[in-house]
Amino acid sequence: MLDKLNSLFDDFKSKIESLETQADVLNLKSSVLGKKGSLSEILKSLKDASVEVKKQVGPVSNQMKGQIEKLVQSKLNDIEVKAVNAKLAKDKIDYTLTDDILEKGLQAAGLHPVTQIQREIEDIFISMGFDVLDGPHIEDDWHNFEALNIPETHPARDMQDTFWFKDMKHLLRTHTSTIQVRGMESKKPPFKFVGPGKVFRCERTDATHEMCFHQLEGMMVGKDITVGNLIYFMKTLLKEIFKKDMEVRLRPGYFPFVEPGFELDIRWKKPDPKKGESEHSGWLELLPCGMVHPEVLKAGGIDPNEYNGFAFGLGLDRLVMVKYAIEDIRHLHSGDLRFNEQFKTF
Ligand code: PHE
Question: Strand 248-252 and strand 170-172: pairing?
């Protein structure tokens, strides 16, 4: 009887080694341990054996059963690990991107115009003493809405405008004003900084709307800051970008986080295709801005009786479109080299 058991076990071991799928392993297991399996058959035949034999065989067969189960489990694991490794090898990401390859990519297409203008604007603000801050794309309700004095009932919180995560607590930031909140949390006034980055809105795309675009936020907090300071910094910025003095005007604009809030327009000459060479001029809405709302300062841990400030938001894609007279925002995300190549700077 013991011999039978031992040869069954040896046979099992040699068979399981060569198997390659989990299904085959499970089949082999049931052919041994299943109700009609070979080990079960041997045990069944025990009932006619002598007490002596039963005493001898019982513990051995139990031990063997345990070992078989262990072998099956470890074989199943091995197969799984092999499959995962094979998949990883197939889908592998090359982390060895070298400067050399990156350089070749840049030679081919150059920096994207939005990246170019972002860097240009960062440099302008750095030269005026501003810091450049960053913030996460995935935000919480506090940084995107609550701390910015955007009430629960505000339409921007609607599913139509905001990409919410399933937990309804996290979202893809809808504006870079989140960086205002993060800046106030991490700095002591007086301070001034800009924060550029991607923002996301649940938009149907068309010539002027994208679900992902770029903004650059700016904030200055100190003592006795005025609208005059705001206009000065905006005019300096625009002069650097457009390489000439730009005429600006402020109109009232509503944003819950500024009071008073403005739309800043520039006087703009746009080539008119219908009239051939002639140009028509008018005001172009360029950037929303305003004096930081006292509630927003409070939420950022700043005493509004002691400090005040201004904030503004620049749409970088829009600025690129105005600067280069691009008619459709979708070109910017097309990844089309023929588009990108036109902005090559080297
Ligand atoms: N966060 C606003 C938007 O995305 C823009 C803004 C920024 C307005 C700063 C005022 C001040 O629409």
Answer: unpaired
Whether 173 and 279 map to the same domain: the answer is yes
Predicted TM-score (pTM) of this structure = 0.69
- Whether residue 168 sits in one domain with residue 202: yes
| Residue 96 covered by a domain | no
> Is the distance from the beta carbon of residue 313 to the nearest atom of ligand 1 less than 6 Å?
yes
In a domain, 106, yes or no: no
The verdict on 123 and 83 lying in the same domain is no
Shared domain check, 154 and 296: yes
> Helix, strand, coil: what percent of the chain each, to 5?
50, 20, 30
Q: Which long-range contacts (CB under 8 A, 24 or more apart) does 100-106 make?
A: 106/346
Other CB atoms within a 10 A radius of the CB of residue 310 amount to 25
What's the CA-to-centroid distance between 251 and ligand 1, angstroms? 14
Asked if residue 97 belongs to a domain, the reply is no
Is the distance from the beta carbon of residue 213 to the nearest atom of ligand 1 less than 6 Å?
no
Give tens-digit pLDDT for 36-53.
Answer: 888 888 888 878 888 888
Closest ligand 1 atom, residue 174 Cα:
4
Determine if ligand 1 sits within 6 Å of the CB of residue 315: no
Is the CB–ligand 1 distance for residue 290 below 6 Å?
yes
The domain in which residue 71 lies consists of: 2-90
* Residue that terminates a domain, selected from 90, 122, 152: 90
Interval 181-228: pLDDT, tens = 999 999 999 999 999 999 999 988 898 899 999 999 999 999 999 999
Q: Does residue 125 share a domain with residue 70?
A: no
- Omega prior to 260 cis, within 30 of 0: yes
148 touches ligand 1 (CB under 6 Å):
no
